[in-house]
Request: fold
Amino acid sequence: MKESAENQIERLLETPYWVIDFLPETVSAERSKQYFEVEEFCCNSQFINRLYQQFAYVIIKLSCYFDIDGHPTPESILEDVNGCIMNGNVNFLFADEDALITLNGGDLYMTVYNPDGRFLQLLQSLVASERLFLRKTI
Reply:
């Protein structure tokens, strides 16, 4: 019996994950004050609009290679991502790849759960093409 999308998402949220970020590595605790100033600036400027557009382009490009649950159009992917800039969230389930990409409004990163093999390899290239960074979390 095929796992429902809701169950698959719940399960994937408990798996190891990577992040797609505008920074190449985690900021140290000693630099957290400066990071929070940068974060506030980014969230209250045009930066976040450009960043979310980059996030949407990664998903749109990835959809050329892998099916997204619900088969969203490029326009609807862009709308969904832009629609959660300051609140809300969006999930992109790649059910056949057993992978999930999430974005929570106001975050300056996307979370990628359970990427593996070809999916991870293509994702790395697509993230780099948008001048973003993909890193595994501890």
